[in-house]
Structure formats: C-alpha cells, structure tokens
Design brief:
The complex is a heterodimer of chains A (173) and B (119). Chain A has 173 residues and is α+β, with helices and mostly antiparallel strands. Chain A has three helices and eight strands; from the N terminus they run ββααββββββα. The longest helix of chain A has 33 residues, at 140-172. Chain B is rod-shaped, with a radius of gyration of 26 Å. In chain B, a hairpin with an 8-residue loop joins strand 1 (60-62) and strand 2 (71-73). Chain B has six helices and two strands, in the order ααααββαα. The longest helix of chain B is centred in the C-terminal third of the chain and has 33 residues, at 83-115.
C-alpha cells in the first residue's frame, strides 16, 4: 500500500491552466457537500487570517449562480492592500454529484484578467478522496502571473540573501 | 513586460557575481561607469554590458544628467508583490486544513446517524 501525500500541490498545465491537487481522509460525497452547501462552505473557505465568508449564496443547478463575499474582521491580517471586502461569483456549468463540478469564477476586483473556468473532480478510493481543481485562466499571461507569484514565494529567501549582501556591502565601506 | 518575463529578467540579472557586486556598490550611492569599473579588471564597455542587463530588469536606472550619467539602484522590482497573488497558496493551504477538520466532524455525524444514536 502506498503512502499518498495529502499535501496541497499547485502545478501548471498546458498554456493557461493551473491544477490544484489535495487529498482528504473522507469519502467524496462529504467533500462534495462541503463545497456546495453554504453553511458548510462558510466553515472552511475563509481566505486570509481574520477574514470570514460573510455572504455565501449557492443556487446549485446548471446555469445557477453563486456569490461569495469575504469580509475583513477586526485585527485581521492586512496584506490585502487595504481591502475590507472581497467579492467573487459565477455560474455552474456542469454538476455531477458527487464527482464533478464545473463553474465560472470572477472576482469583483478582477485580478485574473477576466473570468476563470474551474473544474473540480473528486476521485475516491477506500474512503480517501483526491480532489483536483483545474483552473483555466483567460490567457497565458494571467496564468503565468499567478504561477510566478507562487514561485516568488519559494524564491523569497533569495531576495533575503540579496538584502543581506547589500547591507554587508554598505557596512564594509 | 509580463510578470513572468520580469521575474526572468530579474533572475538573469542577479545570476552573475559581477552584477551582484555592482548592485552592492550602488547600494552605497550613485556611481558612474568609470567608478563602477574601477574595482574590476574589466573595461568600461564590459561594465556597460552588465549595466544594460541590470537596467532591463529595472534594478538600476541612469540619472538624466550630462555625460557622466550616474547609475542608481532601484529597489521596487525586488520588492514587487501583490496581496492576493502572493498569499494564494497560503490561503488555500489554510482553507484545506479547515476543510480537513470539518470533514472529520461530518464523518462522525454520519457515523452517529448510521448507528441511530442521538446527535
């Protein structure tokens, strides 16, 4: 029996897609419910520290719309450029309980260059579910910007080393 | 330049020890090409080539001055980041950790319902 990693993985696919993969120790009908029942979605889809999903409306049918609005609580992490609220929404294109969900997604502030298409697939094996969410961006540039920022996080230590080098040079004068 | 191209240009710029040394010198203050070339066993044209790479990455700018055109260091590209993009992965990791906990609860409720126990 293999040791499957449950850890979050983010990888590019094709020209303008990102694939998010994560394993869960639960049957897929529960994972599907957690993604589609508002009282459950609010419990986990919270965003940055101190933010809550204040509005969560889901009309779960093909052509039905959903709307999420995150609001910043007091003392919340402020790396969000001063935003107090972040809204997002879209429409369901395909629904196959409990294995597949396809919907559009667009943030009010539209930082992805137009709406994205999200395809959620749940595969279960012996009570364990692998979730794959494929996000298709409107362009290769939009996808690359998200990917670059993800890589940037991994490269932050390199920037720190440069800072240290510059500081060293300044003091060596 | 796309963000991806900008990242490439920045890392190309930093991947050379002479260019890193040039940046370190400029951190102390403006300098002309002649002043920058001095500590290296390198001609001014060679230093200018390095400077062009740094300028393309936006790490160095040349002052609009007379002939000497001193170079300055520009910190903005190194500090470039934006709230939601930068935190994308962190946010999703934490969201999924919360989902792990919620799923545990849901499994227990289901188990109890199956056994016919009061919740």
């Amino acid at each position: 029996m293999n040791m499957m990693t449950n850890a979050l993985q983010v990888a590019p696919a094709g020209e303008r897609e990102l694939t998010i993969t994560r394993g869960f120790a639960a049957p897929r009908h529960l994972v599907f419910d957690a993604h589609t029942r508002p009282e459950l979605v609010k419990r986990w889809l919270k965003g940055p520290d101190g933010w809550e999903l204040a509005v969560c409306e889901i009309d779960l049918k093909v052509g039905g719309k959903y709307r999420y609005v995150w609001k910043k609580g007091a003392g919340a992490d402020d790396g969000m450029g001063g935003y107090q609220e972040m809204g997002m929404g879209g429409e369901y294109r395909e629904i196959a309980v409990p294995e597949r969900l396809v919907n559009t997604e667009l943030f009010d502030m539209d930082w992805t260059g137009g709406e994205t298409l999200c395809t959620l697939v749940l595969v279960e094996e012996g009570g364990h579910t692998t979730l794959t969410n494929t996000i298709r961006y409107s362009s290769a540039e939009a996808r690359d910007a998200v990917l670059a920022s993800d890589m940037e996080k991994g490269l932050a230590p390199s920037y720190d080393r440069l800072d240290a080098l510059l500081e060293e040079a300044a003091h060596a004068a | 330049m796309t963000p991806s191209e900008r990242l490439d240009a920045t890392f190309t710029a930093l991947a050379d020890p002479t260019r890193r040394a040039i940046l370190a010198r400029l951190a102390l203050g403006e300098a002309s090409v002649a002043e920058l070339a001095e500590p290296f066993a390198m001609s001014q044209p060679a230093i200018s080539k390095h400077l062009k790479v740094l300028e393309r990455a936006g790490l160095v700018s040349s002052g609009i001055a007379a002939q000497r055109r001193p170079r300055r260091i520009e910190a903005a590209p190194l500090a470039e980041a934006s709230g939601w993009l930068e935190k994308y992965r962190e946010i999703w990791e934490r969201n999924y950790q919360r989902l792990d906990a919620l799923l545990e609860e849901m499994k227990q409720l289901e188990e109890q319902a199956r056994k016919g126990k009061p919740q």
